[in-house]
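Quick one:
INPUT:
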């Protein structure tokens, strides 16, 4: 079998030849041009040699500078990548701090409430996630369902507090800015399931802040909130704030629910209806507060958080 030819000696000889040529060119370029007839012949040759030496020197200098610039560019790119990652981490940290600050403000503004903080460890939507495995590429929020987490609810979240933390069925759950998320529906020793307001079986008594009219807000299979049972003679318009009324003793008074987005009832109907924009983004819940004391029937209206 023929052995591959080694190019190391050839490369060494080539570099040696280039070095000799550079030395010769340097010598010729710096040698004073003789005066006399020979200068007519030697002068142009010496000029050519000088120009050739300059070109070769510029070539190697440019090559060295190019290598140096490339190394600097790669170093800068690594720094930019690191700074971008750090910026993402800082923004994530800032968002978390804001959430905790909102919850802390609520706790400080409402000392009559006993509160338990909780992290959201699972989000489920049985309608949206029907037929989807958590590992599917388009699983989305379906991938956040806790393995083996069976629930009677269509839309719910799982939180990391339970019986050991004093959690009971029916306790209200709020997010940052005091907005109502839903009520505790199932409790185990270490976790709980919170039935969201958008669950089709959710039904709460509410009041309109401006007109003081009473009504109900219910979840729907489409995942929207529907304001119902508002008397026909009461004023109802987009932008009206909706809070819990406390009627029935199942929830404290004045917990924000959302705002009227669009009135959908007709004047000929006996009651009025409207689509409600929730006061919280249910897809982005990360931390919540469970109101454990006083019980809803004993609770005073909470102090709104600015």
């Amino acid at each position: 079998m023929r052995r591959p030819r080694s190019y190391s000696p050839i490369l060494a000889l080539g570099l040696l030849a280039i070095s000799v040529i550079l030395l010769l060119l340097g010598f010729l370029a710096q040698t004073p041009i003789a005066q006399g007839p020979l200068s007519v012949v030697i002068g142009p040759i010496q000029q050519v040699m000088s120009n050739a030496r300059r070109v070769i020197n510029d070539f190697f200098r440019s090559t060295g500078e190019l290598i140096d610039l490339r190394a600097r560019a790669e170093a800068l790119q690594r720094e930019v990548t690191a700074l971008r990652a750090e910026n993402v981490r800082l923004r994530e940290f800032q968002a978390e701090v804001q959430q905790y600050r909102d919850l802390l403000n609520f706790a400080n503004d409402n000392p009559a409430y006993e509160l338990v903080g909780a992290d959201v460890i699972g989000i489920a939507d049985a309608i949206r996630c029907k037929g989807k495995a958590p590992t599917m590429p388009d699983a989305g929020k379906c991938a956040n369902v806790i393995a083996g987490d069976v629930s009677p609810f269509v839309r719910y979240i799982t939180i990391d507090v339970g019986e050991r933390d004093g959690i009971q069925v029916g306790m209200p759950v709020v997010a940052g800015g005091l907005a109502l998320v839903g009520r505790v529906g199932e409790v185990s020793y270490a976790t709980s399931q919170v039935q969201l307001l958008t669950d089709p079986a959710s039904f709460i008594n509410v009041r309109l802040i401006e007109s003081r009219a009473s009504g109900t807000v219910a979840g729907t299979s489409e995942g929207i909130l529907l304001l119902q049972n508002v008397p026909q003679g009461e004023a109802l318009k987009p932008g009206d704030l909706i809070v819990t009324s406390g009627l029935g003793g199942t929830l404290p008074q004045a917990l924000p629910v959302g705002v009227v987005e669009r009135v959908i009832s007709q004047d000929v109907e006996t009651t009025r209806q409207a689509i409600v924009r929730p006061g919280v983004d249910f897809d982005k819940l990360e931390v919540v507060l469970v109101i454990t004391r006083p019980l809803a029937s004993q609770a005073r209206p909470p102090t709104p958080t600015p």
